[in-house]
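Model the whole thing, not chain by chain.
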Amino acid sequence: MALLEARSLQKHFPMKRGLFGRDGGSVRAVDDISFDIESGKTLGVVGESGCGKTTTAKLVLNLETPTGGEIRFDGRVLNGLDGDALKSYRRSVQAVFQDPFASLDPRMRVGGIIAEPLTTNEKLSKEEVKRRIDKLLDVVGLPARSASLFPHEFSGGQRQRIAIARSLALSPRIIVLDEPVSALDVSIRAQILNLLRDLQRELGLSYLFIAHDLAAVAHMSHTIAVMYLGKIVEIGDAKVIATNPKHPYTKALFSAALPSHPDERRDEIILAGEVPSPVNPPAGCRFHPRCPVVMERCHSDIPLLQMSDDRRVACHLYSATAG
Amino acid sequence: MAEPLLVLDKLSTHYISARGTRVTRAVQDVSLTLDAGQTLGIVGESGSGKTTLALSILRLLPPAARIVSGQLRFDGEDLLAKSPNEMRRIRGKKIAMILQDPMASLNPLFTVGDQVAEPIRVHEGASRRSAWERAKGLLASVRIAAPERRVREHPHEMSGGMRQRIVGAIAISCEPRLLIADEPTTSLDVTIQAQYLRLLREIQQTHGLALIFITHNLGIVARMCDTVAVMYAGRLIESGPVRRIFDQPSHPYTRALLESIPRLTDTDARLTAIDGQPPDPASLPSGCAFHPRCLKALDRCRVEAPPLYTVGPQHSAACWLEEGAPLA
């Protein structure tokens, strides 16, 4: 059993139109997706803006309530949790966001920022809090004297270390990492990615890693889920997905990734048009209007996520009856 | 041999505080050349001076900044000797720039036709009608469907990708010789980024213009550039042909930067991180500005900044480890 299991997860945002709030349909941000986050492993989610990856993160953080499906954590269904059980879930799942200049309160000292989750959740003596702050700072590679300084005295990379220290304060099981390095200088990114990998190994943490840098996702993840318009179109072992994608969308996405050497030439697949609105997603396969290998049935039949070789893919090209 | 299209010779741009007491050396002694039709990548982190360098070429610096020394020649002319009026006739006409956020550089109140036609009317004195006709042609050349209809629309009526193309159309409207793109694809989705880079490539090939990419993204350099200039703390620390820099980087900073980037094809290797952080341009370390982060720093690096040495064909690097090589 995986640490966290999402089953047929769905989040539709209702839209109101006009003065009296007539029902205007709904935005299907996340539409019937299932995935596992294994203990001590990283699930990477990739896809373009509007594909539902941030909504997925919010559902996992319990900041949004699903309109369908369920999330099970340690075998317990999340939806019905209340009181202590909910509190304990919230402590188990923490987040680190993109911009460490926005996510840290400029008027609080670093020690206070890191200790805040501790002092609001646990009754600890002053000495104990101080001991825990020192330990957390040490874990993320900052000197103990940082505790008495303010965030503005730190660089972007150091601030992200502070945000990571805070997320670790309650000894969580899962950390949601939403673009954790894209606001940082290039020479700093590797420091943070290495730190995150070390922490995962030492503390057995699970990550939900969201980023638009495909190489960073491939580097950090054990499993990669590719999302398009609220659906998972392909999911499997990170190396398999990154080097041998099957879904035409995944292929196009990874073919567009920037090379790491001038001689590395990929046959770039340029997709026609843009991502359609999630309010009225195309019928059949949602990718069919942009798909370079679209077939007749893609216009009407919704492809199911099915096992194909070593990953699951939602495409009629690979469905059992196609062949 | 003909002179390169753009020549920077020991160019220095400093920010000087109002009372003249504090000087920030944003760009120091940078020498570069760029031939017509070629693509140069200027790579650096925040504070490395890459944007100040681009603005110096356009002479679009904020009031506190001065080009204090060096030479700047473009198309055989001395740009530093030009009056503000003369510069205005060069900007947008011979040298165009695409800013960091192409989405934000369109005016929401004017039609697309007005905005694409504006530089043509200003620089070439064309009539509104003929400028609009050319605007339609430009929209077609950046592959916007139904340009007759689109010229009459406003930016909000278009998708993000189309707005990008329109910014591209404005940039090439007066057929510039040089196009400078500052962080052209930050915060774009990979597929949109790929479309955009392809568009710039097409524009470059059909119009034969030279391109400068100001970026921190080595992937863009690998895909797009012929030559690379690496900036650190206001100085050019390495430059050369793109393959040479990727295969045989000479400066420890360039080498470390290349090793610190995750690769799609090799996901197991631990990344080589560079310790410390980029220096504050207002208080640079003594000697070579990279020495506090450099694993190979010598005593000398702490006191004396190294000159540029020639380390290969058209390849130079500013590092004491290369001492003995001829000066560049």
